[in-house]
């Protein structure tokens, strides 16, 4: 199964290749009708004829020229006799490409061409040679745009699967890093890799994922989200049940904790699972900065997660039902600000929240130069003019902006948008029943979160079901020398990560202290 | 099956939503009662409430709207009479477009006249309805409460707020309604409440202005106002109750002429009841530290013996004033706000059972000993009296 080359053999489509060169030529002409980028390169030896076939844009022309065409044309004068051994002869003695594979099925030949290989046919030979000279232009390795860090590796995944796998292999130099290959998508035939550390992962989870991946029947996979939606446990939940990242270090860390990763060709976003809720509040920098600061920041995120979910709802509840909950002077300030506002608090909150969401939505897709104009417009119009016109109150603007900031503090975007969305039902509940409504909504939410599973792992693992060692990376981030065990929810076997090696002047310099 | 369950869920959810908002109350539709005043008019109660006018409070949103009826004032006082307090409230509500809301009431005023007839019925209102805060301060006003509520003072936004702040600064643990009710219902202790009055002040420009003044402590006897102590007596009482914040004593210098002001800090009073030959005796031990804030005399305190003489002077004055206060309380007002009865009950529960029948006579007859030990620890950053030549200073 461990097949990391870009050549693959299909197991379906059993029609054999013909030994007649014309018939094979015909096969490609028929299969690629109206495909102007298909190239046939005819070769003539002294007696035999041959041709190469490939798709123009997917080939690295230099490679093919130097390592296949040149040796073929310069060194081969005459093939001894065309039979089964002649392809082997070519493979072993003539062609200097590193990856060459012999095939004898029609479908394999077509797939190979589609994958960006050249296929060499010899007249009179029922086998063909796949010459791997995959090229095509792909984006280079850049800093990930969505997961910037101050301290930490700056490289990010690209759209090329082999580059991505390479980036991961640079991090984890271990033969137990396994990669199972799948081809998903009837038309796109997207390569999908399931990666895991064989000695750390729970084998049952891998078998389950394998099964789920094999069941996917779809005509195209353009992004890892396609895969995610097919294999998650609870499709109706607003909460993400897989994490994605475009950082090789994040993916490596996940693999080392006993999770699996799914690489999809054509996207820099790699999926990982199983996940817990807490993972979405952990940023990669938590582990790269000093742990005391990391703890503070992590708690800041927890507080702001609460605010992002509840603040507008709480404001509505308090101002329309529980005015006794505010200190008198604060209440009077709010009352003064709200005096000339024509809307009830809940309507006001909805106006502002929706305006803010629209502003954010508008900002995401606009070109950067226009985006600034939008933000100025939004800040001025909504932030100030609306208040001065007496349409929304100033406290509401503060609440909405604080909530907006709070939702940005959640490091994982997919969790952040889930919270952003859940804010609205919370606001409705608060508008209907005040704090009672909030409590009921919170209970429903908690029940849902407790019920949620990600590949068999409870979503709130660590807190419930409770696990003391896992708290070391949930409520706090203890220093690395203290995290001696891997999280048991993911890694069933081989849980020992390290011996406690608390540094100090005494046991700093070697020795087995 | 699935469709059925969805329907069922929908039906169960619908009544929830339909019933929602039933007690929704926007902030703009509520009149926050900041203070209530109770007076008696014949058999009827006169109830005055003070509500803030948010449109007059300023702020960006408020400046445009508004158009209040009461000129520039940021509050409004509404006063009505009724057979009960609630009836009066009901009448007020009928002339107020906003719903009266008592949860933010922080001040409860009782007019002096009404308080002399008894305060218990007002406490009933507070204790009965949970919207009322037990953290409200109970206060007595000299004269009708609405006069005080209507006083224009320049410091705080509302007169009620002014009174609240004054009451808060009047003692260590300000007496809230909860505490007031507790002492009202306890044996051997009577409640106290700060008393306020309208006072005239001169502003800097010489224009006469009104303000609200804390004029002493009101003491009660059996749930009725017994009297209002003046400032000195209030100070003495609070010192004994361990409630004085930082009492200032002004005493004549032991030698020479002029006055010395001493501020007491960490004053701690212990009350020890004891029986001497069957007769009740109270020993009050007052300890504390003091610092000299001002020396307008020609007395030199640098020498230890002189400082001790000053301490002696202070102790004597405290003993004198406190004894006077206690005598005033037990003889004239027959009120026990310090809780001497309570200390007897705590120390000698058996004897208390006998004494409580005619506690008043024992209270009046008991002997009181005041032992004051104030240690002056700071004399300030200048040692000698200021502005005197070497020979003029009394050593």
From TrEMBL, chain A:
GO terms for cellular component: membrane. Residues 486-513 are annotated as: Disordered. It holds the Pfam family GerA. Keywords: Membrane, Transmembrane, Transmembrane helix. Signal peptide: none annotated. InterPro entries: Spore_Ger (IPR004995), UPF0353/GerABKA_families (IPR050768). The keyword Membrane applies. GO terms for biological process: spore germination. The chain crosses the membrane at residues 299-321, 397-415, 427-449. Belongs to the GerABKA family. This is Membrane protein. It comes from Tumebacillus flagellatus.
UniProtKB/TrEMBL annotation, chain B:
Coiled coil: none annotated. This is Uncharacterized protein. PANTHER family: SPORE GERMINATION PROTEIN B3. Pfam families: Spore_GerAC, Spore_GerAC_N. InterPro entries: GerAC_N, Spore_GerAC-like, Spore_GerAC-like_C, Spore_GerAC_C_sf. Residues 23-197 form the Spore germination protein N-terminal domain. It comes from Tumebacillus flagellatus. It is a lipid-anchor. Keywords: Germination, Lipoprotein, Membrane, Palmitate, Signal. One of its GO terms (biological process) is spore germination. It comes from the Bacteria. Belongs to the GerABKC lipoprotein family. It is found in: Membrane. Residues 215-380 form the Spore germination GerAC-like C-terminal domain. GO terms for cellular component: membrane. Its main location: membrane.
